[in-house]
Amino acid sequence: MSVLEHVRASSITRTLNIIGDRWTIIILRDAFLGVTRFRDWQSKNNIARSILINRLNKLVEVGCFKKVLYQDRPKRYEYQLTDMGKALYPIAALIWAWEDKWFARAEDVPVRLIHKSCGHAIHPELKCDVCNEFITIHNVTYKDGPGVGLDCQVAPRHQRRSRISSKNKDDVMMIERAADIIGDRWSNLTLSAAYLGIRRFDDIQNELKIATNILSNRLVHLVESEVLSKCLYSEKPARYEYRLTEKGRALFPVMVAMMTWGDDWLCDDRGVPFILVHRECGKESHPVVKCSHCHEVLLSSEVEFLFD
Ligand SMILES: [Zn+2]
Ligand SMILES: [Zn+2]
Questions:
Q1: What distance in angstroms lies between residue 227's CA and the mean position of ligand 2's atoms?
Q2: Which of 224, 246, 294, 304 could join 118 in a cystine, given CB atoms 3.0 to 4.6 angstroms apart?
Q3: For the chain, what is the domain count?
Q4: Local mean pLDDT, 10-residue blocks, the chain (308 residues)
Q5: What is the pLDDT of residue 17?
Q6: Which domain holds residue 185?
């Protein structure tokens, strides 16, 4: 198997099958901010009723939400995060941290993340569960797990991609900018290729088996988003490669957290497809998101966003 076939078979892809959709990510973001009711999602976002129903049902079906009756006449339900849904929280926290660092803050974006157990404004940090050091793109490698090569439903979804670029950029709320990148299957896989050192158009195309126009479109978007930069590597004929920017490398922990969630919730008894090895300690690592102050593992119930 090629490296990228590994990625396609990895837990990232499984996770993407569930949350790899811009609206789904936005619905989850609101759930982490306390939204549980249909009309609140609808009034908060300019989202079509049919799309909202579809995404909520899907999140119930996969087990991230449970539907709970809160009023009898007429019957009304709310959507509560299950343990599986709550376990997505570290991904949301890492995305918040990434956006906080790399974008100007919109008005309705929370300014601080408070860890209630230690009482401090903190940053979420992705750490190795063995040695407690940071997990970064520079210090990890991979090896096959027992579940490598198993079916993971990678069939492309035939869904139109929605992008935020048509919207007023100042209106963009928390997590929407990242959702536009990681919530799009092809952008996400293209970025995964970059993390594996695959930079050139033909190489990416060969690995991903992706149509030329789709790849061109996603590369333009990733360059516009400043996670990749387009660099000339040969003058005659002019050839370009796509290198990760610092902002792009900083998104790596989000990808790892997605993979970890997939390992935890979407693998059967046969085991994980892909094992992360942390080079700092040389051990198989199961990364966890921790508090930058007290270094405890961040749980959704122990953290709150603070608005000014
Ligand atoms: Zn380690
Ligand atoms: Zn803390």
A1: 30
A2: 294
A3: 1
A4: 61 77 88 93 91 95 94 93 93 88 72 91 94 93 72 40 43 70 84 89 88 94 94 89 95 90 81 85 94 93 81
A5: 77
A6: 3-306
Type of residue numbered 132: N
Instruction: Report CA(298)–ligand 1 centroid distance (Å).
Output: 18
CA distance 166 to 297: 38
Ligand 1 centroid distance, CA of 7 (Å): 21
Query: Do residues 294 and 126 make contact, with C-beta atoms less than 8 angstroms apart?
Result: no
Task: Please tell me the predicted confidence (pLDDT) of residue 152.
Answer: 44
Ligand with the closest atom to the CA of 123: 2
pLDDT of residue 228: 96
pLDDT of residue 149: 61
Nearest listed ligand to the Cα of residue 290 = 2
Q: Which ligand is nearest to the CA of 120?
A: 2
